[in-house]
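Dissemination and training. As part of the outreach component of the grant, students in the summer workshop were shown how a complex can be specified as a set of sequence lines and then modelled as a single object. The example used during the hands-on session is reproduced here so that future cohorts can follow it. Participants entered these lines:
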Amino acid sequence: MINKIKVFFTLLLLMVSLAGAPLNTAAQSNETYAIRNARIVTVTGAVIEKGTVVIAKGKIAAVGANVSVPSKARVIDATGLSVYPGLIDSGTTLGLEEIGSVAGGQDTAEIGDNNANLQVIVAVNPSSSHLPVARVNGITTALTAPQGGLIAGQSALINLAGWTWKEMALKTPVAMHINFPTGDGAGGRGGFDFGPIANPRSLVEIRREQDKQIDKLKTILNEAKIYGEAKDAKAQDSTLPKLDVDLKKEALLPVVRGQMPVVIEVQMARDIKKALEFADEMKLKIIISGGVEAYKVADLLKAKNIPVIIGPVLRFPANEDDAYDAPFTNASQLMKAGVKIAFQTSDSANSRNLPYHAGMAAAFGLSKEDALKALTIYPAEIWGVADKIGSIEVGKVANLIITDGDPLEIITQIKHLFINGHQVPLTSRHTELYEKYKARP
Amino acid sequence: MANFSLSLVRRITTRRPWRFAALFLALTALALAFLHTPTAQLDSPYAYAIKDAQIIVSAGKIIRKGTVVIRNGFITDVGENIKIPADARIIEGAGTFVYAGFIDGYTNLGIPAAPPQTPGSASGGNRQAAIAAAQAQPDATHGDPSEAAAEQIKPGGASVEEERSVGVTTALTSSKQGIFAGQSALINLAGDEAAKLVVRAPVSLTVQFSTGRFFGGGYPGSLMGTVAFIRQTFYDAIHYRDEVERYNKTKRGVPRPESDKKLAALQPALRGEMPVFFIANSDNDIRRALQIADEFKLKPIIGGALYGYRLAATLKAKNIPVVLSVDFPQRPSDWPEDEEEPLRVLRARAETPKGAALLAQAGVKFAFTSGSLRPADFLNNIRRAVENGLSKDDALKALTSNAAELFGVGEQLGTIETGKIANLVVLSDELWARDATVKHLFIDGNPIELKKEPPTPPRTGKPGQGAQGTKDAAAEINALGEWELVVKSPQGDMAVKLLLQKDGNNFSGALHTPLGDAALRDISISGGQVRAIASINIDGQAIEATLSGTIAGNSMHGTILLPQIGAFDFTGSKPK
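and obtained this result:
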């Protein structure tokens, strides 16, 4: 009898924990850690030259120069090392694509212009080899975003460790992603870009096509608005005819109501201006992504208070006559104008290079502090998770990296890494291959 | 006839000797007339005299007021105080300017566009067949050095008429298909029989750095492959020469070499007897051409050479003549005001018109080619080169005597001198005046009837203009419906159906091709011009094909452009 009761309660407990668990609790660690004698770069506060960070229940439990170490805590002596908040890559396809030439490993895009109903989180592959590769370089969190169509779908902010995509999700959905039409067949439309010379279409035609596509976008959003109004009316008055559920329009409701931000992928200054006009007209809350020429419209972006996700920084200039460092100085010019920025790699396998994108911007005019903030607290603010990640403060998720130097420097090694309070081993496919071939006689 | 004459002579001489003399004279005249039948002169039984005109004998040599007499196709007299033959038709030339006929140094005039069809590629109707055809017919990319332009020429045609309407009397013409595009011919731009047009043939061997990528169309598909192919072909030709020589010496006990007309056709070029006309515009293409020429000790001519001024010193040092294109890059007419252009493009636009002056300064000998320009723009762009520093004398030389010398007819053409072929242009003003018009034109001594007005290019009117609008509406209605097009490709003709419709204010349409069907987008129809884009799937790649056509009544002609593959001309009509 007692056994039966035990079994019953165990089952009950199990069911409760399965059904009611918030997204990330399952991923939390029960282990307590104390990182001692570390230089603590809190990002939001002053640097603590020698102090302790205590991690408990997956959260940062204590930070300071004089913090008592709990008795059961595992102690990490970080003498000579620094603790930073985990880095955030604000634009990736991590978990969505594995090997470029293997079609089965490609899950970044759907066919069609309007994919508003897509949520990338369901497609994230927790076993992707790219996740450990990125995280051993200090990236603990990434925005993973859909790519295809005019409206690509909804992105998710994921922690780069976990058994399931549910465990990994830090916030989902985060934003609606729109590939702003350029009219030239490239730019995320899935078309082939033959380059400006081979492209037979004249600029006038390209622009006409762009306007047509923008009109299409407006129509899609306006229809969602009307759908929302009909839905509201139906809620007020049940005698109205039945309204069929339309998932695409449903997904766009928070967008047209200004509740969900829209990430607009757009590069050139002229297109950015067009995107801002479009956002004003449709009353959208937008974030610019890419923005290689954003520095040319920095004042406008500041006036409208629109953040820019810069990147990749390590790229060629957009125009053949641009200064060679135009992509490198973009961040500092935006920062000077007062625009909030974050960095992205727009990659999966090479998300690991995120700190060096920021590092290049730091070498070309951006302050080191701002470069670090653009990898931590700024993206946390932009993505609405500043209460959870982005700095070393009590109560935040324990996404931490312990390094032997400035993480923006290539020579810096990550010595320890915590995600959700778990100490994650610093191994990846790269280290496995290194060990394998090192052992070869 | 001969026997009859002799017996007649015998009979007459025995009786009345003085009568014999008179008859002898008459017979001689008759015989002379017969002797001349197969030549061009019979077409010009008259003598002409252009009187009181300013005669530009050659660059720098001007007769202020003089007369040119032509007879039987030749210039028979030129000077200030010339006795005009009594039988000559007199052309009052007061106030006019007489020039030697202009020579266009590279064209495809008179050469039919499409090669012979291969059965199967057109009618087979599937992609596999098209690919197989491409691979089965390597000439499309390789070309054929034995292909003689002189044998392909079809006289007449609108483009020839248009070309001579600006004063071009002579042109080098060549097939444009393949890397070894064949042997060019220098032709006069008048006459009904191909054989009579040819002034000299073969003149040169045309070689171009083209690649074949049509429907996966075979080797070489890259620039490096093309260079390798050209070199290998010349080495093959050397091997062929040596084998034939060895066989001719020994005869016994050696296998006889297979007869190969392509390799045989390369021998004059290898011996340095026939110049090799490399079509090379960029400075790097010119370097490639020069390297090949050095390797095989060829006698090169650089054709195009739009950027040749960058290598002016090298060209001079190696004494390499150039046939210079004046097809200067231009700002696209519909380029938006607010759109910047790369410095590279602006620089090319600013520099290329100065190229001729730089080449002349360096001492490079050059002629001109119109490239893809309309003939009216050909002369206007030469005027631009003059405005950009080229001396008028050098420009005139390039347009006349240099070209004649370069193509081996310096004795026959290029200046107004006694004994030369009577190719003459009579202009209303100096050549350098932009509004100079052609008053009279003589080719092979024949007066050429000129088209009344050289056609003016259709200016794209601003949309919504009154008269233009109604015209457009009519043209638009005419354009709608079904069209049957024949697309000319190196692999043969391809039948394509084009459908154009209008729903409300939007055009729609489709393209039905043997490779598959595609919907059209970005359709624009105005002023008899149709433009549309279709995504065609070729080898699993979506290719954006741009169709642009000109409609005249129930027929349409134009081009389908496949990026990185090529441009393909088409003609078509509305089915009855």
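Residues 1-15, 33-42, 116-125, 454-471 of chain B have pLDDT under 50 and may be disordered. Students were then asked to discuss how this feature might be tested experimentally.
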